[in-house]
Amino acid sequence: MREFAEEVGQPPPGLLISLGQVTQKAGKVVEAFALEGDFNVSDFLCTSMVEIEWPPRSGARLRFAEVDRVAWLGLAEARLRILPAQAELIDRLELLLNC
Predict the structure, then answer these.
(1) Closest to 20 measured CA to CA, from 34, 4, 32, 2
(2) Share of residues in the chain with pLDDT > 90 (%)
(3) How crowded is residue 8: how many other Cβ atoms within 10 Å of its Cβ?
(4) In the list 5, 9, 76, 91, which could disulfide-bond 45, CB 3.0-4.6 Å?
(5) CA–CA separation, 61 vs 34, rounded Å?
């Protein structure tokens, strides 16, 4: 997965299992995958950068990493941290884990 590699600095460390797609409130479609593999979060290195104008209408530009950290979370904690529309992806993962 190209985007995973761009945002965490290495390719996914295992076989990807599709969790399908969800549509967020603003209409963006998000596709997610689960995998089982070894991934050391201390090896995290984001190579994808974002640039914004800040303060607004100042002409000044800030450039920073798109992702600032990676962490392992339990399902309950993950549900608290993601967008509400993405909670369905956690539900699908939980179903897969309980099979």
Answers:
(1) 32
(2) 58
(3) 19
(4) 9
(5) 36
HSE at residue 65, side-chain half, CA atoms within 13 A, is 12
Sign for the CA dihedral angle at 23, 10, 13, 98 comes to negative
- Rounded to two decimals, the pTM is 0.74
Strand 49-53 relative to strand 61-65, pairing? antiparallel
Provide the residue type at 7 as one letter: E
8 A C-beta contact, residue 28 and residue 12? no
Chain length of the chain: 99
Mean pLDDT of the chain: 88
The rounded Cα 51 to chain-centroid distance in angstroms is 19
What pLDDT is stored for residue 47 in this prediction? 77
- How far, in Å, CA of 50 to CA of 75, rounded? 28
